[in-house]
Design brief:
Length: about 550
């Protein structure tokens, strides 16, 4: 369902109440103007009653406007809160494949820029609703005052609404263009932040990024933004001109029609003056509301998972891991432009509990892709994944993922240590593992928080392994973990840590290029251009003796 509809659905009763309060407030405002006009024309028969009624209306006006504003502001912020919660949950529930297709900048753009735009729009929405109701109440009053003069008002309203609708359509197109330009800008920001070392070293690349990419994109964004703001400012002036023209027309027409009294003309002009502020406030809020609409469209374009419930603990109980098998599993990456995507498989593979498996193969042969299928992060395009001889589908992939802890080459190092129950706290095992991984002199843990993650790449990987120890999952996937370790610790990893983990009952799948240690594995599988074969033991022994 459209995210805007979902949000509006959840707040529908509060919105109805806020509109009611706004309507009361708007009607009271118009009643005050009407009362003054009436007294001006007909005098005040009972002064005390007049003053009492006036004070009563003022109290009602103050009460209802405060009530409506409080309700509307609450609705606005509650919608932003729900949007943030729902968006993050939907991203977490979206498949890894889809997230990878979208890329980091597109997701960041939505979480920062679009949420801010929507937040601004929801803050403007109350102002727009309140003032629109005020304008509607004012128009009803004008129609009641003189249907004849109202014909002129109606004509001006039609012209105003028509020109606004035309401009709003152009504005929306411009804002959509700005949103696309800003998407490119976010990608370039990513290059600025992530490519800091390369950029600092290479002035040609720095100049290219700045002169050929960032500056033209930022300029395009500036030019479109200026155009859209100027267009809207012109519209505001045009509307002001229309209102003054209307006052002139009423004034002169009133003189021409004997049936229109001078009091009616004065009352009309007073009411139109009164309506000028709400009209310009409604118009002022339109760009922000349109930007919110463009942001909503961008969020919907991401086609994230619809489910927005936050992950709960133990939703799918993790079974005892006995075996994992792939039966004719194929994974096909989508084609890019004219180039066919990489195809892994068909892969047939059996892994039993307690085994130490090595996955080897050249760069781009499909090892990480296979690792993502084994861990349940990717669903095979065809074929089957069997956990304990039971087929894994999208519905029960959580059971498979629950068996695994993994360190991928592009791993993220979290600041918090989480144990197997999902709790973050001090634990005697933490110090033991920090010592075992020889990083106790660099990092300490206080109340589950790591003292630092600003470490060398090899140390960061050791820390990631400590987090993985603490998660205490049954199957561990280590994708080229040892690649950043020094020779001494690499030896410790293959000759001590892996055997210790195996002895502790863990099943281990290690992706490796370290042929010196191939003899440690129970089974070695080799990938070559997406095809898996068993690496024969003769080759394994040969590597061990070399
Ligand atoms: N997100 C992706 N979208 C499209 N194609 C991809 C994606 N990730 C990888 N590929 C393609 O799949 C192929 C296999 O990639 P994979 O990362 O599985 O290789 P690998 O064996 O782990 O390589 P390496 O040893 O270099 O890490 C690559 O040739 C690459 O072109």
């Amino acid at each position: 369902m459209n995210i805007a509809k979902q949000l509006l659905q959840k707040s529908k009763y509060s919105i109805a109440l806020a509109i009611l309060a706004s309507a009361v407030s708007a009607a009271t405002g118009v009643a005050i103007i009407g009362g003054i006009n009436y007294a001006l024309g007909n005098g005040l028969p009972d002064f005390t009653l007049g003053v009492t009624a006036y004070i009563g209306l003022l109290v009602l006006l103050l009460g209802s406007s405060i009530w409506s504003q409080v309700l509307l502001v609450k609705i606005g912020y509650t919608m932003v809160y729900r949007l943030r919660k729902s968006l993050v949950a939907r991203i977490l529930n979206t498949s890894i494949e889809r997230q990878e297709q979208l890329g980091g900048p597109a997701i960041y753009n939505v979480l920062t820029r679009d949420v801010t735009m929507l937040s601004n729009a929801t803050k403007q929405l109350p102002v727009a609703i309140y003032n629109s109701l005020l304008v509607i109440a004012g128009l009803i009053y004008l129609c009641w005052l003189s249907p004849l003069l109202f014909a002129f008002v109606a004509l001006v309203v039609v012209i105003g609404v028509w020109s606004d609708a035309k401009l709003t359509a152009s504005l929306q197109k411009m804002l959509t263009r700005i949103r696309h330009i800003d998407e490119d800008l976010f990608q370039q920001y990513e290059a600025v932040v992530e490519g800091r070392n390369e950029l600092a070293l290479n002035s040609n690349r720095r100049r290219f990024l700045l002169e050929q990419q960032l500056i033209p994109t930022a300029k395009a964004s500036r030019d479109e933004s200026v155009k859209s703001e100027v267009l809207w400012a012109l519209n505001l002036n045009w509307t002001t001109l229309l209102v003054f023209t209307l006052m002139g027309v009423i004034f002169f027409a009133g003189m021409q029609f004997p049936s229109v009294t001078q009091e009616t003309v004065v009352a009309y002009i007073l009411a139109i003056m009164f309506l000028r502020t709400p009209i310009s406030m409604v118009l002022d809020s339109i760009p922000a509301v349109l930007k919110g609409k463009v942001a909503l469209a961008a969020i919907n374009r991401l086609t994230l998972e619809d489910r927005d419930e936050l992950p709960t603990r133990d939703k799918q109980a993790t079974p005892k891991f006995q075996s994992l098998a792939l039966k004719d599993a194929v994974y096909q990456y989508p084609a890019q432009d004219d180039e066919a995507g990489f195809c892994l498989g068909a892969v047939n593979l059996n892994i039993n509990a307690g085994e130490l498996i090595f996955l080897v193969g050249g760069n781009g042969s499909g090892k990480s892709t296979l690792a993502k299928i084994l861990t349940g992060l990717y669903q095979p395009t065809s074929g089957e994944v069997l956990l304990n001889n039971k087929p894994v589908s999208t519905d029960n992939a959580g059971e498979l993922r629950g068996c695994f802890s993994a360190i991928f080459p592009n791993f993220f190092l979290f600041n918090e240590v989480i144990d197997e129950q999902g709790n973050s706290d001090d634990h005697p095992k933490i110090d033991y593992y920090l010592k075992r991984l020889a990083i106790d002199h660099k990092v300490s843990v206080d109340k589950g928080q790591l003292s630092t993650t600003a470490l060398s790449q090899g140390q960061r990987k050791r820390l990631a392994l400590m987090l993985l120890y603490m998660e205490d999952r049954q199957v561990l996937l280590l994708d080229e973990w040892a690649a950043d370790q020094d020779p001494v610790f690499r030896e410790v990893f293959y000759r001590e840590i892996l055997p210790e983990l195996k002895q502790a009952g863990k099943t281990i799948i290690a992706i490796s290029h370290d042929d010196h240690y191939f003899d440690c594995a129970d089974h070695i599988y080799k990938l070559d251009c997406g095809q898996l074969s068993s690496f024969n033991t003769g080759q394994q022994k040969l590597f061990a003796t070399n």
